[in-house]
Amino acid sequence: GENVEQHPSTLSVQEGDSAVIKCTYSDSASNYFPWYKQELGKGPQLIIDIRSNVGEKKDQRIAVTLNKTAKHFSLHITETQPEDSAVYFCAARGAGGSYIPTFGRGTSLIVHP
Amino acid sequence: SQTIHQWPATLVQPVGSPLSLECTVEGTSNPNLYWYRQAAGRGLQLLFYSVGIGQISSEVPQNLSASRPQDRQFILSSKKLLLSDSGFYLCAWSYGGGDTEAFFGQGTRLTVV
């Protein structure tokens, strides 16, 4: 099955700095890569996603890149703000079977004002 | 639009008591349904998934069971809770196939005392 590794587990930045979270996956058949943001006591919410036919996608201060050859994808947050503080999860979803998304272990992002 | 409801939001149960957590989805048909547990380490552990009524797959052997009595209803149960069952339980749904995101409920914080 799919295996997703996520790094770092904790990331502390100053407000205004950029933050980068990296994930690798094992199943070359995976073709969908969402990123979720989870605030304390709530369920994860999708913030951006990328499909295997695209190398990069951007939405305001958030961008995601995908390298299918190397099987890794990254989340980039620019001009971080305190409200960006949360746990972020990457995931990979395959093209077969029941399409179960496999999640990374999460990154706790702390943005200091 | 589609919505997912999960309840209760918090629950404190004694060891050895039964458990029933319910999740319902509105606005879509034949969704894939998932139960995840999130322990203190933040990772999302897939417990069960279902691709249709009465079809349940278990990912991890444990003290829990799941049922899907109706198309958009997913129930997580236990006959006798253990201390180790404490955690944050998340229900999620996705479209039946293809490269789409999973939508999460708000979670249930279960404390077994």
Please write the string of helix (H) and strand (E) elements of chain A.
Answer: EEEEEEEEEEE
Radius of gyration of chain B: 13 Å
Which protein chains are joined by the largest interface, and how many residues does each one contribute?
A: A-B, 28 and 27 residues
Mean residue pLDDT of chain A: 92
Mean pLDDT figure of chain B: 91
The total of beta strands of chain A comes to: 11
What's the helix count of chain A?
0
Which quaternary structure do these chains form? heterodimer
| Element-by-element helix/strand order of chain B | EEEEEEEEEEE
State the end-to-end distance of chain A: 41 Å
The Cα radius of gyration of chain A reads 14 Å
Q: Share of helix among residues of chain B? A: under 10%
What is the count of DSSP helices of chain B, taking H or I runs of 4+ residues? Answer: 0
Number of strands of chain B: 11
Q: Give the overall shape of chain A.
A: globular
Unreliable stretches covering 5 or more consecutive residues of chain A = none
Largest sheet of chain B: 7 strands, mixed
